[in-house]
Design brief:
heterodimer, A: 273 residues, mainly alpha, B: mainly alpha, 7 helices, elongated, membrane (chain A), Tetrahydromethanopterin S-methyltransferase subunit C (chain A)
Amino acid sequence: MVHSPANPPPKVSIDPKKIALVAVPVSLVGVYSGIPAIAAVLALPAIIWGADAVRRIASYGLGTGVPSIGNLAASIGVISALVGLKYTPALGLAMGAATGFIFGHFVDKFKILNIPHLRRFATELAAAASLALMGLMEGIAKLGHAPLVLGTEVFSDMAVALFAAGFAIPIYWATSLSMFHPYNVSLGAAERQGRTLRVAINTSGMAITLAGVFRLGYLAMINQWGSMFEAVLIVILGVIIWAYGVFEVFRVCKRESASVVWTGVPPRVGGSK
Amino acid sequence: MIDPLILILAALIIAVAGVLISVGTILLPIGGAPAAMATATGLATGTEMMLAGSGITGLLMAAALYNQPGWIIILNAGISSAIMMSVVMLIANVLIVLGKGIPPALAMRDKDPITKEDVKQYVTPGTVGHGVPTACFLDGMVGAFIAGVGGSITFLTVFKLATFKMVLGKEQINILEIFSPLVGIAPHQVIIPIALAVLVSLGLFFINANITAYMIKGVIEGWWDPKFKDLPKAAITCFIVTLVFGVLVSLIAL
């Protein structure tokens, strides 16, 4: 079997199968737990899994840029996540994976995109997006701490936060960005899985912080000042993850670059003062 | 309880809309990165962003006309998308012609297919055309119109189903009712159905734009381009993927 472009990187820091084996149960437990802070924060492994799937799929060259695959994943993911929140989270995950598989199968069958293992990659991508969006949407919209086994009772309440307040669309973009950005920013000759996934920690921290801010706004809108603590907790945890990601990326970049030098403050040239 | 017949019919309507979006996408004059340097015909952006820009304009019009009859919504959404695309192409041409001093030219045909002008001689050696010539312009308008129609059909289906279930609480739905006007509903009642329908249509735009974009690999001139012959493959893929998507959407809306 001949793979035409860009031979895949020889070794990876973490085996993709291990990421999937951690991400699926952890994120699914987060969604099932029904506690918004846990659901939102446990979207982290799913986003990292998605970023890793983007990394594998986009390393072959897509012809339309990396962001397109993130938007595709988030588009499948947002609908299957809504199915999951309305019926039961496992159904949403299964539907997302099935849609991704059908997409991968037919795109591969009609030779639209010539990527080996496209079916598996597309399935992983859609499943990861669906898990991440379920967690983040639950973090924004769910009231109370009852486990989310059958979502039919709480879905109409969640629809108010997601659609009437309009928080579904920004969180859809935030998830899309947090999945495609890591590979998009670090692609190049010396791209390395470890560094790309560290950027994914960074971007998922941003998405979680955003979810917390949306929850603050939603609770203020419906005058639920009592449960504000949890929204603040999501923001704090998100900021911690985000800051950890930033410092971790900076540390790795400093270690792997040829040299890091301080260029000094640029001199003032002409102008006022 | 969900009526399986309604679910399948709604999914089929959404799948047809997906095929329309795919056909519309392939007609747009997509230039990609080379067009930003005026070394290829078309607009200097990718498929997705172009389709999103024109499609969202159509969705905005569809949402504003929510209580009108179906054909008015569909036609107006298509026209708004075509207007948006025309404005973008016009401004791109103004920038290329008056700003950079480059004449719009086609590389794949000797003569412009619409005006029969001899445009090949204006192509700079080593490039594949510049700007948006007349044939590309008309092509892009038609493409944006078809894509806008596809997007508004999705919008209409999801919006009407969600309104019937969530706002009116109907048990029996006739599928043809989604094309009839909505009476006796205040605007504040339909905020959730409209937002859901717009989110779904946006997702559908991205999925179908991506499948088509992967096939045309970045740059396409118009219906005379050899890549246009691959349209049936993309259309079949779009139909199947959108059918699954339509089932999921109907599960949410119903």
